[in-house]
Amino acid sequence: MPQSVLYAGLSDSQLFHLVKKDDIKAFEELYNRHWPGLIDAAYRRLQSRQKAEDLIQDIFVSLYQKRHTREITTSVKAYLYQALKFKVLNIYRDEFTRSACRKDLFLNDNCKTDSADYCEARELNTRIMKTLHSLPQKCREAFLLSREANLSNRDISVGMNISVSTVEKHIGKALRILKNNLRDYSFMVD
User: Fold this and answer.
1) 20-48 confidence digits (pLDDT tens)
2) 44, 60, 71, 121: which one has the fewest Cβ atoms less than 10 Å from its Cβ?
């Protein structure tokens, strides 16, 4: 009987147990078993095949490198999808940070002609950032994924592993807090 057939008949936990014993064939079986589903899930969130492939590759490399110390208390599949969730959230956070830096550079480089406008814009930006940082973590995360990453409430609920109604409550709470903290200004946050 070919060795690949033997591995195909093993459960994920049995395969991971063999991976911990440096069995490369067991790792290849886990990789081949979960790669297609993980790529599809990553692509749906990132809309880039290259980013999705790089992300999934990173997850498997990390799993293999830490195989001797990694304890998986859930299923291997659940572990891999949880790792994907966190990697995607890190990408969104990085993109938000880059976007915020670009906005800050725009304010610094282009608004200096009118110093009053510049000062007001800088003050407003500071207040917005302080308010965002003061939000509870899940509330801030849901709000930023909605506003900066332009994700739907459903996509946010999947990524954060919470219900759509909880996402809506987090976003509503963030908007209320922003409106209260920024009411001195002549615009409304939507």
Assistant:
1) 999 999 999 999 999 999 999 999 988 88
2) 71
pTM above 0.85, yes or no: no
To 10 degrees, the CA torsion angle through 63, 69, 72, 77? 10
pLDDT digit string (tens) for 65-76? Answer: 999 998 888 899
- Asked if residues 45 and 37 have their Cβ atoms less than 8 Å apart, the reply is no
Which candidate, 165, 134, 128, places its Cα nearest to that of 147? 128
Q: How many CB atoms lie within 10 A of CB 41?
A: 20
CB crowding 17-29: b at 16 or more within 10 Å, else e: ebbbeebeebbeb
Q: Tokens 């304010």 identify what position?
A: 107
Rounded alpha-carbon distances, angstroms, from residue 11 to 26, 27, 118, 170: 10, 12, 61, 39
